Amino acid sequence: MTLERTYATWSPPPGFVATPSQVAGIEVYAPAPEEPAGSKSKTFRCPRCAGVISYDAGDQELVCPYCGYKQPVGARVVGLAADRFEFTLEALGESERGWGIARQSIQCASCNAVFTSGEGELSTTCPFCGSNRVSTQAALHDFIRPGYLIPFSVERETCRTSVRAWLGRGWMHPPELRQVGAVAEFTGIYVPFWIFDADIDAHWRAEVGYEHTERHYRDGKWETHTEIRWRWEHGDVHLPQGNLVVSGTSKLRSDLVERLYPYDLTRLTSYDSAYLAGWHAQAYDIPLKPAWEVGKRRMREHAKDACYASIPSSHVRNFSMSADLNQERWRYVLLPVYAASYAFQGEIYRVLVNGQTGAIAGQKPVSWQRVWLAIAAALAPGVLAGLVGLLTTPLGGLGAIVLPVAFVLFLVGLIASIYIFVQAREADQR
Amino acid sequence: MSAESPAAEAWGVPLEVYYCPHCHTAHLASAEVKLEMCPACLQADISPEPDRLRREPPELVIPFAIEREQAQEAVARWARGGWFRPDEMQVETLSARLRRYYFPSWLIDSDIEAVWQAEMGYDYEAASFRERYQGGQWVSEQITEKRIRWEPRVGRLKRRYENVVVRAMEAHQTWMSRLSGYDFRVRKPYATQAIDRSVIRVPDYPPDVAWPDAEEALDRAAALECKGASQADHVRNWSMNARYDDLNWTQLLAPAYVTWYREGDQSHPVWINGQSGQVYGLKYVSQDKARRTSLVIGSLAVLFFLIGILVALIGTGTALVGLGVLMVVGALIFGLSAPVPVIWAWLRNRSLHAQEEREPS
């Protein structure tokens, strides 16, 4: 920018707006604050037939289901170049305040009906006229707004088919699951996530043990003696940690959400309210600070592992380390998740599907009857062979051959049983 | 000079203008101050030159915060101690020659109409984190760091700036550094009593030569105000396209005391900051005293040498020969140190003289 103009002919450059000046006679212009996309309530209606339009995961466009009108969404894919923010005290403090508005009254722009949206909901559908309405009005009162999202690219029908297939998979689950057709409607939700980056400079110090083997000739024979010699060592590890994803909602079980990872963050797209049309979207209820604690815990464990990996011995004691985190940055994004539930034998089970990759994370009941049968089947050869061996022992040397074989079979069966049991218990606890 | 003279018109009192062709400085002094030599370089061929009077009147004066007695004490402390002190470096002599002196600076007033742009820096605090692992436990530490966020700002400015200080002497910075600077905010309007029995230096630069400095100073003042207008903590990459109107040049006077002492055929000034009491002067040593000391040492060495030879001759064949030889050797060593005072004094004066030559007055 050059200052070729004089006082009388000057006008502010494009994109600059007047800001309050503290000194009379001085005008100050600053870059216009970025208007958050969808900062105002927006109702999505077809410009051709006035029908309700919504974002279509298959077409990746706004589509009118009535007349077939399609409208591309103008947002651009920024990927990993998406803006990252520092941990300013302001950001840490503001995020603690959360939404500040638990529920908000909304007047539908189409039918004027007044209804309320749920806590932290960014988008909603008018229950009276079915208008898709996206509002970040509540977010405007908040310091932290979602700047980026990954749009849904897995269609609802694909999701339904793959979940059905997933339910029918696995021998340890009840076969009736295949017939469960009443999986509740899949709800596409843009779920809030925090993404963290940091460079870690770690310094470790520990006693490292090295095996030392000596051979002695004593009393006419060679003896091998191994001892561990300890010495203090230290080292430095530089570990860049990028794109660590931490859930920003407590409304979905974190263990299920973590099983949806990874998301392809190179598809991060600038926030545009059009992507939310016809979909649910939640704002964070886990603020930046506690989410960062989770991210930091993971980062420091990675750093600890990296320090251990740099030690040239498996014998380590009195280990201590410090990890300086530099260039700490965060992003607040919305990632696509389908959520559904189904009822089986009086119990409700949850299923989540990654709306970008189609990965499934969910709960499936375990048929313990089948598990016990499998365990019995695994143990049976060994037990039976043992009985045969015991019975044939008085008959001569045959039993002496069968019994060791039986013992081996029993051992193999036992290991298989333990494995099956652990697997079944894990599946049951999910 | 009559009351109707240009000096009386500008300064309110009749003043003589003296010019020194040696250091090319001009001074103003009232009739009761007998200016026989240049107060800056102490050369005696000073001559009245009324044409060198600047027409821009004095407007503000930094008042003397140091009384004459305090200045005398400061000079006394400065003159105390040291080898081969010149005879004239006595408290009484220096006090008797003490004279009030004013250094000039330009004060410029200007209307500015400008278009400006800059990067304004805003302080903010950010958290950084350090994790420690010891004894199976993690300890987290949050460190708060102050950082600067730079943002572009542009704007217009239409203001009048008054009394912006601009240097009026070529050696302004040198003098500010020698006398540890002045607080230019402590100042009061000029009154004729302020320059009573004082010598006032005439600006080296006329306003047209000082204008680039003035423009820079006005820009700095504008940048500072724009920073304030933007509520910023820092400013960088400042640029301004300005029109300066209604320029008005006046003078600001900064107080000092000056005295001098003579060493050999050279006179050397001693300056005292009239606001802070800071003293500046080069402490030459007396070449004569050093020469006399060398002579005494040398004479004593010769005397001991002769006595030593005499003792050795008288005591030939006795133990006195040893004493004589010892005296001769001692006298030779003592004699070798005789030139030290005169050489040291010469070297010291030479280095001070070189320093004086290097620095402008």
Q: Can you give keywords for this protein?
A:
heterodimer; A: 430 residues; alpha+beta; 8-stranded mixed sheet; 3-stranded antiparallel sheet; B: 361 residues; 11-stranded mixed sheet
Summarize the structure.
The complex is a heterodimer of chains A (430) and B (361). Chain A is of the alpha+beta class. Chain A has seven helices and 18 strands.
Description:
The complex is a heterodimer of chains A (430) and B (361). With 430 residues, chain A is an alpha+beta fold. Chain A has three domains: 1-72, no CATH class; 74-364, no CATH class; 368-428. Chain A has seven helices and 18 strands. In chain A, strands 11, 12, 13, 14, 15, 16, 17 and 18 form an eight-stranded mixed beta sheet that branches. In chain A, helix 6 packs antiparallel against helix 7. The longest helix of chain A has 32 residues, at 398-429. The two termini of chain A are 60 Å apart. Mean pLDDT of chain A is 83; it is low at 98-103 and 136-142. Chain B is α+β, with helices and mostly antiparallel strands and 361 residues long. Chain B has eight helices and eleven strands. In chain B, strand 9 and strand 10 (266-273) form a beta hairpin. The longest helix of chain B is centred in the last third of the chain and has 28 residues, at 287-314. Chain B is flat. The model of chain B has no long low-confidence stretch (mean pLDDT 90). Classes of the chains: A alpha+beta (430), B alpha+beta (361).
